[in-house]
């Protein structure tokens, strides 16, 4: 991959990205401060817009504060198991081979961005962790590349197309029986119009309109990345964190006692692999919908089982988990505060007030872009990774019936806005930033450039493509 014709020429987009980055490095606080600021803003909105009493707001915050504890543990395990898998010697060798491909800073940043986007369509958890490791390895091999741009590019899958892919929460919830409350299914069914209130994936992520949106986003983001990459002269570099225990680092400890021999023997690891593998095979074979069987818990078990296999011995696995654990501190600290924000929005009815505003000013043609915009705005305050669809689905889908808009397209519209919020909200950047040893302020200048370019394109796409779809499906 060569871009010699452009090397040394600073593009306008690169200058804009660097100016944004300079501003964010100076003025943007840590991601945790975002959570605290959002808490204050939502508290004030509840008082002013809904007319809730301070006691009600406090109660709603406290009630919501603990509701993401299981999800917090799941996300911590996604980071840990992803780290464990990525630092296993066979996997890290593959990452290292990919990192050798680019020959210039622009090619390096483009490689990371395209890898992040393609893999995020397959699975966002895989993309979040592996893209960060790829960016880190590329930075080692291309020290002339801007480390901030590489880091930002590794996150662009979560900021563009992940929710329209195979692990998109809303689409999986709509096609999986039992994944949503009966009351929501009743809204979608609309008196039997949509059988069982179930919307298959062929009417959401596999619509040709959705696939076209994904293709447009990949091409546009790739072009943006190519042109926002700073030249060698202005590249920002930092000390790249160590690769980790599994990435080819020699074993130091050797078994000295019979007890330690078990730690360095593959026997127990292979037994766990057999147990986990048998369960996973039975889980997917017996599931009525294989895609619906791919849940967050299943993904964690897949990663963990592969980690047992690839690290081969308990000693190597334990070392990898130990090295991965520090990367989870941001998630553990911040998720409860975002859960509190979600509580204040939902338990006071603030979400319905906001949604009803958009519905009142909508037509069948303008409803999709308005909901996409709404999903983006709400995603800044509640970066749920798609789980807030449970809250929004009843009134979003009811309004779609009232306005005679394609129901599956509204799921895709929600997903498009959900992903865009990640470009300006550092919440989901935390695992990536922890692996890369950076702060949100280091990368948000670049992601904000992508947001500014992608937002109007997404709104136009959902408006135009929505008019090609019939009601209800």
How would you portray this structure in words?
By secondary structure, this protein is mainly α. The chain has one domain (12-249, 260-466). Helices cover 67% and strands 0% of the residues. The chain starts with 11 loop residues before the first helix and ends in a 7-residue tail after the last helix.
User: What characterizes the major β-sheet?
Assistant: none
Total beta-strand segments: 0
SS content category: mainly alpha
Radius of gyration: 23 Å
Measure the end-to-end span.
Answer: 43 Å
List keywords for this structure.
single chain, 473 residues, mainly alpha, 22 helices, disordered N terminus
In short:
With 473 residues, this protein is mainly alpha-helical.
List the helices and strands and how they pair.
Blueprint: H1 12-27, H2 31-50, H3 54-65, H4 69-86, H5 89-99, H6 105-122, H7 124-141, H8 147-154, H9 169-175, H10 182-189, H11 208-228, H12 258-263, H13 267-286, H14 296-311, H15 314-324, H16 329-347, H17 350-360, H18 367-381, H19 389-403, H20 407-420, H21 430-436, H22 440-466
């Amino acid at each position: 991959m060569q871009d010699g014709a452009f090397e040394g020429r600073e593009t306008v987009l690169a200058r804009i990205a660097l100016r944004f980055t300079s501003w964010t490095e100076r003025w943007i606080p840590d991601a945790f401060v975002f959570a605290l600021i959002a808490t204050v803003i939502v508290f004030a909105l509840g008082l002013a817009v809904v007319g809730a009493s301070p006691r009600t707001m406090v109660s709603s915050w406290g009630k919501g504060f603990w509701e993401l504890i299981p999800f917090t543990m799941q996300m911590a395990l996604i980071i840990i198991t992803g780290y464990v898998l990525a630092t296993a010697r066979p996997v890290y060798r593959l990452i290292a081979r990919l990192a050798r491909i680019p020959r210039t800073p622009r090619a390096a940043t483009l490689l990371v961005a395209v890898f992040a986007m393609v893999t995020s369509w397959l699975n966002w958890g895989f993309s979040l962790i592996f893209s960060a490791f790829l960016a880190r390895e590329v930075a080692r091999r291309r020290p002339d590349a801007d480390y901030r741009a590489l880091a930002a590019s590794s996150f662009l899958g979560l900021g563009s197309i992940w929710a329209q892919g195979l692990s998109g929460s809303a689409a999986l919830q709509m096609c999986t029986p039992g994944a949503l409350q009966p009351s929501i299914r009743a809204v979608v069914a609309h008196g039997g119009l949509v059988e069982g209130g179930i919307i298959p994936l062929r009417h959401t992520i596999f619509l040709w309109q959705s696939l076209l949106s994904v293709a447009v986003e990949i091409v546009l983001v790739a072009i943006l990345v190519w042109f926002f990459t700073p030249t060698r002269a202005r590249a920002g570099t930092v000390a790249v964190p160590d690769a980790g225990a599994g990435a080819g680092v020699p074993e130091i400890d050797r078994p000295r006692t019979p007890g330690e021999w078990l730690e360095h023997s593959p026997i127990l690891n292979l037994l766990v692999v057999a147990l986990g593998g048998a369960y996973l095979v039975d889980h997917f074979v017996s599931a009525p919908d294989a895609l619906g069987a791919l849940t967050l818990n299943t993904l964690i078990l897949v990663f963990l089982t592969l980690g047992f296999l690839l690290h081969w011995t308990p000693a190597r696995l334990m070392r990898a988990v130990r090295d991965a654990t520090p990367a989870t501190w941001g998630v553990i600290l911040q998720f409860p505060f975002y859960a509190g924000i979600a509580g204040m929005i939902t338990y006071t009815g603030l979400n319905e007030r906001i949604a009803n505003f958009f519905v009142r000013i909508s037509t069948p043609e303008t409803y999709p872009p308005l909901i996409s915009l709404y999903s983006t705005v709400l995603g800044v305050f509640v970066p749920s990774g798609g789980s807030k669809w449970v809250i929004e689905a009843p009134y979003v889908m009811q309004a779609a019936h009232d306005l005679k808009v394609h129901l599956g397209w509204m799921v895709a519209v929600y997903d498009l806005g959900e992903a865009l919020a990640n470009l300006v909200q550092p919440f989901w950047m935390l695992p990536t930033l922890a692996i890369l040893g950076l702060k949100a302020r280091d990368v948000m200048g670049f992601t904000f450039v992508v947001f500014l370019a992608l937002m109007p394109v997404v709104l136009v796409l959902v408006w135009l493509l929505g008019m090609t779809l019939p009601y209800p499906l």
